[in-house]
Amino acid sequence: MSLNRKRGARAVAIATAAFALGASLVGCSSDSGSGGSAGDIEEALQKETTITVWAWAPAVEKIAEAFEEKYPKITVNVENVGTGNDQYTKLQNAIKAGSGAPDVAQIEYYAMPQFVLRESLVDLNEFGFGDLESKFTASTWNSMTMDDALYGLPQDSGPMAMFYRKDVFEKHGIEVPETWDEYIAAGKKIHEADPKSYITSDTGDAGFTTSMIWQAGGHPYTVDGTNVGIDFQDEGSKKWADTWNELVENDLLAPTSSWSDEWFRGLSDGTIATLIIGAWMPGNLEGQAPEASGEWRVAPMPQYEKGDTATAENGGSGDAVLAQSENKAVAAAFVKFMNAEEAGTSISIDMGGFPSTTADLQSDEFLNHESEYFGGQQINKVLSEAADNVVEGRQYAPFQVYANSVYGDTVGQSYANHSDLNAGLQDWAKAQKKYGSEQGFTITD
Predict the structure, then answer these.
(1) In 289-319, which positions are buried (b, 16+ CB within 10 angstroms) versus exposed (e)?
(2) Rounded CA separation 216/311 (Å)
(3) Whole-angstrom Cα distance, residue 107 to residue 81?
């Protein structure tokens, strides 16, 4: 995962008005304008056409060049209008105005439902793309679908694993934790030996929280059209909160904001001993913590019961065709080339993206790669196995972008005060319910 893309994995505060869905909701169908087919794509690729793509992943420009080489009558203009929420604000404004949207947009999985509900995306089943399902991991494909419609193709994925400092563990005589109880015990041992060192850093992040709840088997959101259930005291949510409270309430988390210079210094000098994070992290460590080369390793996520293998996704995005596009067939062809054809996916992988395509995840070249930074470890074997073990059934709120923007005012306060995460989760749920009701959703517990 690139440095640009990792920033998109974070939820930052946004202007609520820019994402207001309106008081009257009409369901989850997409008005894609004129229809399409595989035949329409082949015909469209033979005509002089220009499409615009909004994306922050650096690989997209290289992929566009390869696409233009294959289809010389097509011009692809790639524009980085901002990462994550910066782009979403511009995209929502264009959708609301009825003009100015690109033909294709990169959208993170958690934000997809919000654009679907604005009827702003094309159902790619019209082009026969539903047949591509077997090419992708189940979790990423599920993030692109809603009510049997396919609103994009997965671009990358973020199955979670534990990145850890081998030297720090050996210094303190700590075995690689297989359970969360062992992980917390390791955290206590590290901090007791050196009060400036911590097992990990976490000052509160919405994406991390929902991913950890996902791994714990939680289903805080249940979505059926405009009926939305929100319960952050379900069994999985409480399981995670009660466990993570051991770190939060006992001041065992590094008080360092993720992606800051201080954070990378901690990852470089070993005062932050682990990261529970998505599979896109290696490139960030190599680029921003080069002094730690040879010290980091990768292991599966700790489990609630020894022997289990459950993990979750953290981050990742797909690419959608906008309903405003006047060149839907060519736009769809580019989305397919980028995400479902080797010519496109190989460029993404070469530039640090972690694949969502099963063929790439299972290839010998990918699995057997020995990372010099990780001491020669074949880290992709661990990360690919994690992709196979993502817990099924995750749902996002149809206003997840807003939900993430108020996380700091609710759960974030539990972190700041070193107090019970359950209380913060309940406050977060209350804020989301209020907003959802105001936007015309039917909200339940």
Answers:
(1) beebeebbbbbbbbbbeeeeebbbbbbbbbb
(2) 8
(3) 12
Query: How far, in whole angstroms, is CA 351 from its chain's centroid?
Result: 18
The Cα–Cα gap between 320 and 431 comes to 29
**Domains of the chain by residue range:** 3-157+315-387, 160-313+393-444
Would you call 24 exposed, middle or buried from its count of C-beta atoms within 10 A (0-12, 13-18, 19+)?
exposed
SS3 126: helix
What single-letter amino acid sits at 342? E
Q: Tokens for 64?
A: 């566009």
CATH number for the domain whose boundaries are 3-157+315-387: 3.40.190.10
3-state secondary structure of 321: strand
To the question of pTM greater than 0.85 for the whole model, the response is yes
Q: Say what the pLDDT of residue 417 is.
A: 97
What are 288-332's pLDDT values in tens digits?
Answer: 999 999 999 999 999 999 999 999 999 999 999 999 999 999 999
State the pLDDT at residue 37: 65
Distances (CA, A) of 420 to 69, 243, 244, 245, 361: 56, 11, 9, 6, 39
Q: Torsion over CA of 87, 93, 98 and 102, rounded to 10 degrees?
A: -10
160-313+393-444: in CATH 1.20.140.10: no
- Report CA torsion sign: 283, 287, 293, 297: negative
Q: What is the pLDDT of residues 118-167, one digit of tens each?
A: 889 999 999 999 999 999 999 999 999 988 999 999 999 999 999 999 99
Kindly give the parts of the chain with pLDDT less than 70. 1-38
| CB of 277 closer than 8 Å to CB of 201 | no
Give the 3-state secondary structure of residue 101. coil
**Tokens (6 digits) for 28:** 């989850």
Residue 147's pLDDT is 85
Q: Supply 417's token pair.
A: 């005060």
